[in-house]
Amino acid sequence: MSWKLRWAGHNRGKVRVYREDGSYFYGDPSKYPPQEPEYTEEQKRQLQEIEEKRKISQAKIAKYELKIQEYQEQIKKIDEQEKKRKGQEKLKKWRAKQKRQG
Fold first, then answer.
1. Do 26 and 15 form a contact (C-beta atoms < 8 A)?
2. 24 near 18, Cβ under 8 Å?
3. Angle at 19 (CA atoms; ends 11, 45), nearest 5 degrees
4. Sign of CA dihedral 75, 78, 80, 86
5. Cα(first)–Cα(last) distance of the chain, in Å?
6. How confident is the model at residue 31 (pLDDT cuts 50, 70, 90)?
7. For 34-39, what is the mean pLDDT?
8. Which residues on adjacent β-strands are paired with residue 18?
9. In this structure, what DSSP letter does residue 32 have?
C-alpha cells in the first residue's frame, strides 16, 4: 500500500489552515473559521470592473436569446407555410392527373 493511500483519510473532516509564511497544515474546522480573502484597492477595483462587464455580458446574452427565440418562431412559421404549399401543389397535381384520366 502506498503512503498516499495510507494517508488519504488522515485529513478528512479538517480544514487547510495557512500560516504567514505560506505553508499550511490541517486543523479542526471549529478552531479555524473560514477567512475572507483580503483584497487591495487595485484588486477590488478590478473585481468591480469584471462584475460590471459580466452584467453587461449577461444583458447581451439575454437580448440575443430573445432574438434566437424570435428567429426560431419565424423558422417554424416558414416551415409550416412551406409544408402547406407543398401539400397544395401535390393536391393540384393529383387533381390534374385525375382529371386527365377520368
1. yes
2. yes
3. 110
4. negative
5. 91
6. confident
7. 75
8. 24
9. S
* Beta-bridge mates of residue 25: 17
Three-point CA angle 88, 79, 98, nearest 5°: 15
Q: Name which of 12, 6, 37, 38 is nearest 26 in CA terms.
A: 12
Alpha helix (H) residue ranges in the chain: 3-7, 41-101
Amino acid identity, position 91: L
How far apart (Å, rounded) are the C-alpha atoms in residues 35 and 53?
27
In single-letter form, the type of residue at position 64 comes to Y
Q: Is the pTM of this model over 0.70?
A: no
Instruction: Work out the number of other CB atoms within 10 angstroms of the CB of residue 15.
Output: 16
